[in-house]
């Protein structure tokens, strides 16, 4: 009986600390490295994995971890992102203290400025944050794809007695130049933090890798308020967590690194701690195409850690015509609801909702976003087709690199982005 009481007490304490946590999802960035793909949409709202948006992974991590008080901070061209959250994430019950609250940039402070950095975005909403009376504040980026149990990170934060805990993962040294790089002592206390260093410090155990910040932080709430107020009054700051807040705390306060492998949600047999910044055309294409393989690195079929989203009511995918010259088929591909493959061939590709591929067309190694129509005899290879594109009959992309670069946007690794504006300019 004593063991039962002890277990119940631990469960009660675990649930209590999650209820006392407020998650803030920073979702205001454009994601300029994605080029024209983000001309009209913020990066967190870009479609991913056939039916989801990038932000769905962070929000699903919150819900699956037991964190049900969430604020989403938006700024750049946020209409489609806000619409998606309103449609797909309104199932929480306010009367139980659960919510996903939209916090768009509103020039709420005396300076009457838009969000000037990640820390300033949180600072401008301090009155709202305080009104929720959190004990802990979990700061998250809304533009990465991964599955993580934030409850385990929170447990580590509390057990370590930290003022701030920073989630981190090991990355190759060359890649570490684009991250905040962390140095730790034997108990994973942070002793140095360098934002995007030219020469990253390797980890003590592997000279080929560095310990990189994931942009995920847990703060004791009152401590966070103090640091944001100090930052707001400091001259020359960029009001950014990675560039200003975290480096200033090193050596003065208790900062602890939380290793991603300790809270990464993995499926049976997986060996990779999956985390992707799909912030370039090549990375976005690779992460989507990987989902068409036999055993993808990211498991989106895991019932124990579902990815939630808004899902339009669409008919099943349809494949029509079956003769040697004109067969509607898709091989090693993912095809979403509302799609019609009409006498066309799709190989190693991912088709989002409401895509029509017309007769004699060929789509290979290509990501096609929602509401596209691919004309007869068109051939698309290694492309990203943006939302709402109508591909003219007979258009060939992916076979002539020079011509592709003249008409569309071609990446360093040979991925061609096609957008509606680019198609309209073909006749000019």
From TrEMBL:
It comes from the Bacteria. Alpha-D-glucose 1-phosphate binds at residues 115, 180, 195-196, 213. Residues 315-418 form the Glucose-1-phosphate adenylyltransferase/Bifunctional protein GlmU-like C-terminal hexapeptide domain. One of its GO terms (molecular function) is ATP binding. It holds the Pfam family NTP_transferase. Pathway: Glycan biosynthesis; glycogen biosynthesis. One of its GO terms (biological process) is glycogen biosynthetic process. The record marks 75, 114 as: Could play a key role in the communication between the regulatory and the substrate sites. Residues 23-292 form the Nucleotidyl transferase domain. It is an enzyme of class 2 (transferase). Keywords: ATP-binding, Carbohydrate metabolism, Glycogen biosynthesis, Glycogen metabolism, Nucleotide-binding, Nucleotidyltransferase, Transferase. PROSITE patterns: ADP_GLC_PYROPHOSPH_2, ADP_GLC_PYROPHOSPH_3. Gene3D superfamilies: Hexapeptide repeat proteins (2.160.10.10), Spore Coat Polysaccharide Biosynthesis Protein SpsA, Chain A (3.90.550.10). It catalyses: alpha-D-glucose 1-phosphate + ATP + H(+) = ADP-alpha-D-glucose + diphosphate. Its EC number is 2.7.7.27. Involved in the biosynthesis of ADP-glucose, a building block required for the elongation reactions to produce glycogen. Catalyzes the reaction between ATP and alpha-D-glucose 1-phosphate (G1P) to produce pyrophosphate and ADP-Glc. HAMAP family: GlgC (MF_00624). Homotetramer. Belongs to the bacterial/plant glucose-1-phosphate adenylyltransferase family. This is Glucose-1-phosphate adenylyltransferase. The gene is glgC.
